[in-house]
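Hey all, sorry for the wall of text incoming. These are the two entities for the joint prediction.
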Amino acid sequence: MPAYKAPVEDVLFLLNDVFHIERHNNVAGFGEATPDVVEAILVEAGKFCSEILVPLNRQGDLQGCTRHADGRVTTPDGFKAAYDQMVEGGWIGISCPTEFGGQGLPATMTTVINEFLASSNLAFSMYSGLVQGAVAAIITHGSDAQKKKFVPKMVEGVWAGTMNLTEPHCGTDLGLLRTKAVKQADGSYKISGTKIFISGGEQDLTENIIHLVLARIEGAPAGTKGISLFIVPKVMVNDDGTLGDRNGVVCGSIEHKMGIHGNATCVMNYDNATGYLIGEENRGLAAMFTMMNEARLAVGVQGLAMSEVTYQNAVTYTKERLQGRALTGPKFPDKPADPIIVHPDVRRTLLSIRAVNEAGRALVLWTSLFGDIAHRSQDEKEKQHADDMMGLLTPVVKGVLTDLGFESAVNAQQMFGGHGYISETGMEQYVRDARIPMIYEGANGIQALDLVGRKLPKDGGRAAMAFFAEVQGFVNAHKADDAMKPYVEPLNVSLGHLQQATMWFMQNAMKDPDNAGAGATDYMHLFGLVALGYMWGRIVVAVNEKLAAGDASGAGGGNVLDAQALKNKLIVARFFAEKMLPETAAQLARISAGAGSVMEMGMEGF
Amino acid sequence: MPAYKAPVEDVLFLLNDVFHIERHNNVAGFGEATPDVVEAILVEAGKFCSEILVPLNRQGDLQGCTRHADGRVTTPDGFKAAYDQMVEGGWIGISCPTEFGGQGLPATMTTVINEFLASSNLAFSMYSGLVQGAVAAIITHGSDAQKKKFVPKMVEGVWAGTMNLTEPHCGTDLGLLRTKAVKQADGSYKISGTKIFISGGEQDLTENIIHLVLARIEGAPAGTKGISLFIVPKVMVNDDGTLGDRNGVVCGSIEHKMGIHGNATCVMNYDNATGYLIGEENRGLAAMFTMMNEARLAVGVQGLAMSEVTYQNAVTYTKERLQGRALTGPKFPDKPADPIIVHPDVRRTLLSIRAVNEAGRALVLWTSLFGDIAHRSQDEKEKQHADDMMGLLTPVVKGVLTDLGFESAVNAQQMFGGHGYISETGMEQYVRDARIPMIYEGANGIQALDLVGRKLPKDGGRAAMAFFAEVQGFVNAHKADDAMKPYVEPLNVSLGHLQQATMWFMQNAMKDPDNAGAGATDYMHLFGLVALGYMWGRIVVAVNEKLAAGDASGAGGGNVLDAQALKNKLIVARFFAEKMLPETAAQLARISAGAGSVMEMGMEGF
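and here's what came out:
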């Protein structure tokens, strides 16, 4: 039976000692996020996750969701009670504006809690995760009346939200979408069409579901320029806020999937359903795009979450499983065999997961803090820089951490040998669940194209240049320090590879864009390794500062890393530098080989 | 609904034009394997696979196997009829000696057919696959009476076979095994104990099952030196060959697994079951080891098989799925969108699978031919060389091709976007099924240790030196040829990396064996890339010879590659050299970094 302990100490270390979030006290919500408040919230969240959500995870997988003949959907046993508890605890609106009943804390707090939730029960966590995106969409683009009518109940958690983009013939290429909207005399619209892959499209957890739906208004232009965004409530909401009749939207079926069985993935049939336009006509895709960074960041966090929980369980098993002896002679001669964690190949596997988890968490928090600053800062220059960085880092977080998260889950499962293939162990569920973040919210190949084709050249490369300058500045500041050399020198080499790859694109993608397309995925992962290497560098600096100050005991409520835990981070950082950063040389070589051999063969030759 | 077409043309090209199997006509069985016989058999096998086994694959996954209260196990609907058809066709004994009713053809023929079977229906293919291992064990180590009593019915296919090694507390470390054997007055033994993870331990396909069981004879030494191998029939066999009473072995339960649901993975309870010693007392592990190369090769073939079938289905989908436009402008302006195969990232993904499939198949056949020569040649020198090479290549084939096979399945699934996560598409089943070959028959970390710790140093490094010399010889023979440079130069670089890594182990593993352990997995994959690169080199030479001879029409029954198909191989070969071989630099860097950061952290720090 898998277990999970939320990495509260590591998060506090990152927030307080690496990123010094107290520096942002001038930004709305950060003043309230004092170290003791943050600690108390995270401890409580971790407890809820370990005690309530973890035990529901396997049951959710086994039982899945059930659609009844009338279109109702029942979630697995225990999900409703757990969701009620989450609503009661006010967890869903923790970062939402206070004017709508939220607690107004930084979105970064939600990012952290989303990691804990996803590690505990990915399928469950998606129900509340999608509410946050829908709330953000309505707050950013909706009218005051729409906000007042829909947002408070969503922030409270008694109403859920969904995103309806995909149609059977139309996924990445939203320009093909056919769902239509017909304007009514009262200014509302009648929405008709079929949407697929709608996570939480129907469920029994909340009183109402606020669907956000992309549709084409009658007479609108073809392609992406004719798409509008609508609010379509499952149950109509009266002007006094009470619930009215059922709207014309129903769950037609739920998908049989590889994993996340506890989340209902619905085919949603809209049949003259009443919808309310959000923002301007034909500007729906733009409205969707402004939410996309947050949604993609949240999916990247799911990759991290799966990596963390599978690491924890693999560590437990490799310490317990006795099999064979250490290569250097028995370590536990009194036992029939040594625990398999004595083997270098097992440790290598565990460390490669751990090295992703710690730096990945740092990257997620760093990106999320940029998001908070971009949305909440009063300083225009700071705001723009933060927006640049968040935009640049988001596809990296989404694409790289979900690829690595899946890889971690597979590698952690491998540590269990044959037992990892057996369902009761729980590891194979993690692998099946960890597969979806690589696909949804823009498959990872799309993330790579977003990075290379949009984020890199945007504003004359301003964001990328700022990133390179920051990492290069870090390298320069520390390269003369012998204690930093094992981390900084390999980072400098990899940064050089990244810059060369960027240059290669600049020189070769103009004349043939396929040169960018063929190298995009490698570039995204190269960027990811440099970003993770930089995060490790920042962690090492913080560790050394704390050790030098004899400040291992930290402040606050006891969730602190002791000196040994801090020193262990130096080992993992070195492992990352020695064993994972060398990959960037191969990535650069592949990128520089260009599109020739990729594009040459005729389609019929495949 | 997934489909599959056996790659008969490619196999014939490899056997006839790359490996020139007619050269081995002096080896038993090869004289009968004339090109037309081979072609006829493979065409027939491919037909059986596509028409009978492919349609049963999803049903097998959905339905799985059922254990009844009395211990009987029912396989999925259709399996029994298909198995009967396989028995009737004489497929199981195709490479078995004619004296036991087989057809005496090279084992390489079985290797090829095993690929087709596994691509079509991995779970099904395991039932017959395990018979081959059991037959080999009895033929090699059994007495004449045992052979006469058990082998003919197994070769015919009406009796199956299993391998019983694993116990709950004992997997890799067989020295811990507890199943006991008590000698009886009549020379037989009473076997008692519990074995787990027994593939096909019980089923309804065959009249009898011949279990091969590792057990410890009462009073035998502890550890691996006290293990013996026994034949334990499910139903006792009378001296006249008729079936007698049920023996004391029963299926206690079947496992719930991530995949291969159509294969019954059984807990087998032995309770004073009658068993017959094979070979000498306490020499069971040695007997097991002689079969291990064949069994591991067969599992490596499963990895290749999953890579091939997922490639074929991804190609079909990416040609049909219309979404977005090519980066260089619309390729099908009359359609609403281009098929996604126009995108470089999609092609890169498909080619990285294809590059593994073609060279992987060559590596499998090359290794299998060494196996045939090692077992059947009359020439002692040739025999020894072949045995060396088969021993060296087997962990590479098993470890590398199953890792890559799973990676291919995941990448192929990714091409389907969200649809790949839906069960009906069939891709997620392939991913779940493709996961097991990485684990069973020695988890891949064990393969890496076998390569680095046993096969590399064996006989003073004779096998490795022969391999290096052969690849170096190939490079030297072709490096001056401009047409060969794109393939040979990168291969030469990677071969250099492999030799440097080997040297590094020689210099550093002696003083600290953890240095070998920490680099073993990287070394195995580095070795694999060089071996695959060498195979591509051999393929390119054969392609150029055929093109130069204008011999694209080939000989035989029409299953030939045309000139375009041959030229396409040059493109895939170049893709491999440009995009996949560069990885060896990173592998060498990781290996040379040694065990320091891997071993430093205390166990409690994980």
